[in-house]
Amino acid sequence: MKKNRAMLIIALLAIAAIFLLIYKQTWITQLVYEQQRLTIKRTELKKELEERSRQLYQLKDPQRVYQYATTTLGMKKMSLNQAKAIKQESKQ
Q1: Distance from C-alpha of 15 to C-alpha of 35, rounded to nearest angstrom
Q2: C-alpha span between 9 and 15 (Å, rounded)
Q3: pLDDT digits (tens, 9 = 90+) for 52-64
Q4: CA angle, corner 86, sides to 85 and 92, nearest 5?
Q5: pLDDT tens across 36-85, in order?
Q6: 58 with 64: CB under 8 angstroms?
Q7: From its phi and psi, is residue 74 left (phi > 0), alpha (psi between -120 and 50) or beta?
Q8: How many CB atoms are located within 10 Å of the residue 60 CB?
Q9: Cβ burial, residue 14 (10 Å; 0-12/13-18/19+)
Q10: At what angle do helices 2-60 and 62-71 cross, to 10 degrees?
């Protein structure tokens, strides 16, 4: 009877160990998939950052600003006779 009980306990421990190994492997697999997903997301975000930085530098380009001001807004270069001096009042 003790022999059967010992065999039963050993069998249950072996089954529990197998389930723990399966659980551990499943958990590791899930973490690897999550890591891959986050790596892909990071790569996409880096590409988006590069694109937005490129757009920002393009928008800040002085020639582009000048072209937009003259064509879209209808602005013209200011001549010197259009400039007026403003006197600063002294505070007393």
Answers
A1: 30
A2: 10
A3: 999 999 989 999 9
A4: 145
A5: 999 999 999 999 999 999 999 998 999 999 998 899 998 888 887 777 77
A6: yes
A7: left
A8: 9
A9: exposed
A10: 60
